[in-house]
Specification:
- By secondary structure, this protein is α/β, with parallel strands linked by helices.
- The protein has one domain: Rossmann fold, CATH 3.40.50.
- 33% of the residues lie in helices and 14% in strands.
- The protein has 9 helices and 8 strands.
- It has an 8-stranded mixed β-sheet, sandwiched between helices.
- Helix 8 links the parallel strand 7 (229-234) and strand 8 (260-265).
- It is globular.
- The protein starts with a helix and ends in an 18-residue tail after the last helix.
Length: 311
């Protein structure tokens, strides 16, 4: 009995150590259970109820540096909406940065998927250029920031000037983009099925009549780009692990593109990437601040003390 008791005690001690070693990752209720902040204004950029953008305007006269923000949710409106980014938008607003937080039609809504979701992102970006000044927003040096599937759309928006002329997605004028920031993004639709499921990616591309549906939809196929990009992941993100960012940067480098970088934050996951109070979001927010504060628009990487070396 004594030996058995010691064995059980040792097992309990081992489990306790294991629990301490494994960080407790945030889940969506941990984020969405917080009091929801309110945007400053809401505008429609199209006739559909989902074709809207919310403006997060800091106090003061402006003009304010601006982030165009795109939410994720595996491109499905029934899974997520723009409010999942409200906490990040509020944090940036408190830092004196305006946010243009956009909604778009997902694959599970009429007109969504291809080409609708992409055309919505185009139209929302064009609306920022057309109406941003009415709210005191600067539109000459925009940071485009997206999370998860929104990271894919952010990278895609940064590349829309390279779309084939035959593509129905080639509309609007390219933004004046300072940086594209992908948080736990899905830069390669050929591998995005690992995070969102093969059927979801197939639904996203179902409307394409192109022989190669990835040619005008997958950011990994649109390198090289002149726009600087930062791909940031929690190293425990199982929706879009750091390998996604690394693979994109490798493809960019192989194409002669030296303006893409990636890094990961240890001990954090997919939700932490857009959750104020997390190490990952702190690194993101300070990086965005550094872009607007520097004369040359350079990004300063802020890492926790035990962060791994950059690739």
């Amino acid at each position: 009995m004594r030996a058995a008791g010691l064995g059980l005690a040792a097992l309990a001690w081992s489990l306790a150590l294991s629990a301490q070693a494994q960080p407790q990752l945030m889940d969506w209720p941990d984020l969405m259970g917080r009091p929801l902040p309110k945007a400053s204004a809401k505008i429609a950029y199209g006739p559909d109820p989902l074709q809207v953008a919310e403006v997060w305007r800091p106090e003061g006269k402006g003009p304010f540096p601006t982030v165009l923000m795109i939410h994720g949710g595996c491109w499905r409106s029934g899974l997520s909406n723009l409010h999942i980014m409200d906490y990040a938008a509020e944090d940036l607003r408190r830092r004196g940065i305006a946010v243009w937080n956009i909604e778009y039609r997902g694959v599970d809504r009429p007109g969504g998927g291809y080409p609708g979701a992409f055309q919505d992102v185009n139209a929302a970006a064009d609306a920022l250029v057309a109406h941003g000044k009415d709210y005191g927003l600067r539109t000459d040096k925009i940071v485009v920031l997206g999370h998860s599937a929104g990271g894919h759309l952010a990278l895609w928006l940064g590349a829309r000037g390279k779309l084939p002329r035959s593509s129905p997605l080639r509309d609007g004028k390219p933004l004046s983009i300072a940086w594209v920031v992908s948080l736990g993004g899905l830069p390669d639709l050929a591998t995005a099925k690992e995070g969102c499921g093969e059927k979801t990616v197939a639904s996203l591309l179902a409307g394409s009549r192109a022989a190669d549906p990835l040619a005008d939809t997958s950011p990994a196929r649109l390198v090289p780009l002149p726009v600087p990009r930062m791909l940031i992941h929690g190293d425990l993100d199982d929706t879009s692990p750091p390998s996604q960012g690394r693979a994109y940067v490798v493809k960019a480098r192989a194409a002669g593109d030296i303006r893409a970088w990636t890094y990961s934050i240890p001990g954090e996951g997919h939700v932490e990437e857009i959750a104020p109070g997390s190490t990952t979001w702190a690194s993101v927010a300070m990086g965005v601040e550094s872009v607007f504060a520097s004369r040359d628009g350079s990004w300063t990487i802020f890492l926790p003390p035990k962060a791994p070396s950059l690739p």
